[in-house]
Amino acid sequence: MLSAWPMLVALGAGFFLIGTVVGSFLNVCIYRIPWQKSVIWPGSHCPRCWSAIAPQDNIPIVSWLALRGECRSCGLRISARYPMVEAMVGLLFLGAFLIDVVAAPRGPWYAIPTDRLIAATYHSIFLALLVAATFIDYDLMLIPDQITVTGMVIGILMGTIWPGVRPEPSILLPQGSTSHWQGLIAGIVGMAVGAGLTQGVRGSAGFLFGREAMGLGDVTLMGMVGAFLGWQAAVLTFFLAPFFGLAHAAWKVLVNLKKRLAGAQLSSADREIPYGPYLSMAAAALLFAWPVVWRGWAAGLFHSLYVVFWWLMGVTNIPD
Ligand SMILES: [Zn+2]
After folding, report:
1. What protein residues have CB closer than 5 angstroms to ion ligand 1?
2. Which of 235, 292, 311, 314 has the lowest CB atom count within 10 Å?
């Protein structure tokens, strides 16, 4: 029997390279979508000297390194964030390939299951959308609908066509989602729970504290997370996100304290922290850790909640 490894290495390299190209396109989206500009036309150009960027200067990561981070025509410094986003998306795509294809049960190289490759593609699309949402939210404190609504549509559509791409128990049905109808329902329930939970907390916080804790973009972002990963993962994402935010918040408190000690006034930007990046990080972390998280811990937690729910409803012979 032939070894699967050469084929897997080639596919893995393919996922990484496609990821860097997608990352390059996301750089354009991150820069242009908030301003309602076309992401296709005109082609990339230098913001200072306006010269078009030649195809050989537009190769992900490589071109930035070759040009030492400067425009070829005028020498304007180009942010290191561009190649970093390209490398990051490449690694995320490779990660999706590793968990969905390499770590999954499979036969020899010629029998790499198509549904596993589809799952890796599905998760790659999801991760790319999270990256775009993260950087736009970080820059401008908003998450455009072009990202999140597109994401909800793709998540529900792909989850309906290939119900097996969603993580294990995307809906509380005995055997998970297996038919197209169950895939469709899992997507819609996930979207409703993700967006509904976030809107509920946002509304209560607004009522209690009289100020916005989260934006409407966070609501649609969580709708997208639910549409892609199902309602359980959306609930866990929501409660995991603050832990990712704590580190940044602590750092910001220190910076603000330093400003106050120096006698400076705090601007509204000093007080606000975009929440989308932490929701995105939590969703990505759960995606990669899902098999361990679900079987090791969350399945039991959700089963307890399920039992409590039916007990509160007065049902004692609980359906399993
Ligand atoms: Zn230039």
Report:
1. 46, 48-49, 71, 73-74, 76
2. 314
